[in-house]
Amino acid sequence: MTFTSVVNGSATIGSRTVASTNPARLEEVVGEVSYGDRDTFVGAAEAARKAQASWADVPAPVRGRAIAHIGRLVEDNAEALARLVTAEIGKPYAEALGEVREIVDTCDFFLGEGRRLYGQTVPSEMADKQLFTFRKPVGTVAVITAGNFPVAVPSWYIVPALLAGNTIVWKPADYSPVVSNAFFELFVRGGGLPDGVLNLVHCDGPDTFAGLERSLQQGLIDKVGFTGSSAVGREIGALTGRHLQTACLELGGKNPLVVTPSADLDLAVEGALFSGFGTAGQRCTSLGTVIVHESVHDEFLSRFTAAVSAARVGDPTQDVLMGPLLDAKFAERYEEFLGWIQPHHTVVGPRGRIGADNPRDGFVGDAAAGLFYHPVVVDGVRPGDRIFDEETFGPIVGVTTYRTLDEAIELANAPGYGLSSSIYTTDPKDAFTFRDRIGAGMVSINNSTSGAEAHLPFGGNGKSGNGSRQSGIWVLDQFTRWQSVNWDYSGRLQKAQMDTVELTPDTTYRL
């Protein structure tokens, strides 16, 4: 079956067709996708622009009920959608099912926000005058998402944007097109969305950028949401800035996990294992560097490397910690990261692609069939090492030591990312000090660097983003604009700051 872009409710056939394969079984074709081009993107933006006013006229509580219906339909199809996520990107099924649950949670949360798109009634400094504020939709939104979370992350943008009265052009990752079409169908059918309200575009990166640029030039796009690398995020931010827009950017991370002397080491190891190697280390919130106190370094490293060696790796349909890398391009890039390992680093165990000549004990399934790699722990990393300073998208975790908490926080902030962070401690002072001084937008105490809930703000600072937030009520500031209204019923012109009423206190009174 060939999957296509869908613009204004109609399938749009592109100029070329590409097969999407299962990274765990490369010979298995999950589906074929017809790629559009920059004109497809612009056409979708035109359709969204045309549909926006009528969608915004639908009362917000009714839009909220549409979101609720989407949530129920996704819930009814959760297992099938999760299996498709596993087949197309190799995410272990348990994780994929949890990702689908994020859509449901997001829909459940924003159902209520359809009745809470509140403005305010504000007292005026003048008589016979009332002041109000209202939330207005921004208009037409372009959403460009990565494929490591092919259904959860799009829902973080699309659900609140729809609820707020916006229309959408969605361009998913080129390596998860089949699951993207399934997600699209569930949203359109579950929400009963009119044609043009949600449009799906399949095209490559250069055509996406060119189509977005033209759409901005023609005034068709009012807001851009982007999840992906910091490098591409800079380009998106620069492009939107030229049109006096601020994109919602959710970018990469080099997420630290600090282990203090008081930490429960078994719990810290469990958190580091999931943070570093869940989704094969291919999350924006994946663990980058463990920063462990010198007094517990050796014990932690011994337990951590033992846990990594014992972890189940392989077929993502089975009970495994990690499956394959998402796509061949990520495997190629990951091998570059392995080349960053230096002589002063210590690596325990094998590295590289798993196969007959580089086996892994206890591997689940057929390693030769897919893009499977050894999880790697690199001890002795330090500032100035690329493996310490830069995001490594894949199953590789660095380890370094510290003497004081001040030093640990300095190391945690040093790479300049600011997405997620974690500290393992039983000392409340350490926890509060870390929370206060870490530059990350998200902090976990005695939990992993990964994971968020639908009603908390998600996002980062520095190289990880421009301070915008997704999820919870905070994301509504990305997809609405405040409108202020003053209503004067005095029957005469009252000039603010010029005609205000003043009391006349007696400042000379003395007891």
UniProtKB/TrEMBL annotation:
Q: Which residues form the Aldehyde dehydrogenase domain?
A: 16-485
What Pfam family is a match for this entry? Aldedh
Record-annotated active site? 250
Annotated PROSITE patterns: ALDEHYDE_DEHYDR_GLU (PS00687)
The EC code for this enzyme is 1.2.1.3
Keywords on record: NAD, Oxidoreductase
Q: What class of enzyme is it?
A: oxidoreductase
Q: Does the keyword Oxidoreductase apply?
A: yes
Please report which protein family the annotation says this sequence is part of. Belongs to the aldehyde dehydrogenase family.
Q: Which PANTHER family match?
A: ALPHA-AMINOADIPIC SEMIALDEHYDE DEHYDROGENASE
How does this protein assemble?
Homotetramer.
What protein name applies here? aldehyde dehydrogenase (NAD(+))
Organism from which the protein derives = Microlunatus ginsengisoli
